[in-house]
Amino acid sequence: MRRPLVSLTTGLLLALSFSACRKDEIVTYRVAGDPGKTAPAAAPAAPSGMPASAPMAAPALSASDADKQMRNTAVTTADGPGLAWTAPATWTAGPERPMRKATLLLPGAEGATAELAVTAFPGDVGGNLANVNRWRQQLGLPPIGPAELGAALQHIDVGPLHIDVVELVGPSVPPAAPQRVIGAIVPYQGATWFFKVTGPDAVVAAERENFLGFVRTIRPNG
């Protein structure tokens, strides 16, 4: 007479156990993704000590290549033979940079340096007013108008070249030292060449005469 009761009890326990298992399955079940899509590949890890978004630095030039570029540099453009120049012996060649014809480093006190960038672009790149205001904006200075442009430029004629030189000093924003720019704008054979020194105010100011002497060595190449 007790066997039916035992069977009934056993059946209830089995049902409860099966129900509990089913609940656990529902709780822990993970919905599969769309089989037609694959997970994106993980981005390669950045080198130790470098942020993932940091670009790799351009390699420095060898000493012999740096000396050649520093002392007497000639660059060819698509439209002609380009320009050549001779830099002071105290300036050194910097690393190659995108869109630049050359980079030169100007020494200052206590290891400080300024940088001269040489670039060339087709046409007049908007004209002198636009170019001067572009540099002013980079220093945090307000733009000037056409009536003020003449006073902002120094004209130097070197052989067949008409060169405009501009000198700008940015505002002082402690603790950073103010920045100074001295730039030469050189139209040549349908393009405009820019020789632009940027750096700490004291360093660039100390190299001003060297820069003006450098500008007077700029000449057509060939």
Please characterize this protein's 3D structure:
With 222 residues, the chain is of the alpha+beta class. It has one domain (63-220): Protein Transport Mog1p, Chain A (3-Layer(aba) Sandwich), CATH 3.40.1000.10. Helix content is 31%, strand content 27%. It contains six helices and ten strands. The protein has helices at residues 3-28, 63-71, 128-139, 146-152, 201-206, 208-215, and strands spanning 73-74, 83-85, 92-93, 102-107, 113-122, 153-158, 161-169, 179-188, 191-200, 219-220. It has a seven-stranded antiparallel beta sheet, with helices on both faces. A three-stranded antiparallel beta sheet has the order 1-2-10. A hairpin with a 5-residue loop joins strand 4 and strand 5 (113-122). It is globular, with a radius of gyration of 34 Å. 18% of the residues are buried.
Entry summary:
The chain is α+β, with helices and mostly antiparallel strands. It is built from six helices and ten strands. It has a single domain (63-220), classed as Mog1/PsbP, alpha/beta/alpha sandwich (Protein Transport Mog1p, Chain A), CATH 3.40.1000.
